[in-house]
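Lay summary. Proteins are chains of building blocks that fold into shapes, and those shapes determine what they do. In this project we predict the shape from the chain. Here is one chain we studied, written as its sequence of building blocks.
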Amino acid sequence: MATKIRLQRHGRKGYAYYKIVIADSRAPRDGRFIERVGSYNPNTNPATIDLNFERALYWLQVGAQPTDTTRSILSREGVLMKKHLLDGVKKGAFDEATAESKFQTWLKDKQNSTQAFKDKEREAAKAEEKARLEAEKEANKAKAEEVAKKKAELAAADAASKQQEVEAEAPSVDESTAVEEKSE
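And here is the predicted shape, written in a compact code that computers can read:
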């Protein structure tokens, strides 16, 4: 039986996530499978991969062939690296302790680079948030200045109209005082 390590699609339209399964190569994509070894969610940033490392390594060692996408997932998680090192041990290129130390070094480097990517993304998000906040403050400041300018214009217009009213009443007051002076 030719076995494949492949993805089985689940989820709704536009939001797919996948199960990583071992299946007969003749079985349908979402059909019968032998064993589920993990899941893959490409909708998160970075993509979330949950993998049973030991079972995936076992199936690779007994001859299961990964599809292109699962090959990249297994490579990212280090399963292919571990298989490569174990094949080197079988051939006598180096001993098992050396293979394990090489794998741990590779794994630590991979985790550091992943953490650096996450930190970079987090910093970019913070910088974007800060820039958006500053732009909003500037817009609010400009709007406040515009409102203050309009209020000042309205206040000046009110003062001018009151001044005109006072001036309009002032001659009548002068006339009334003039009439009072004549009567005295």
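What the prediction tells us: Strands lie at 3-12, 15-24, 35-41, 48-51, 65-66.
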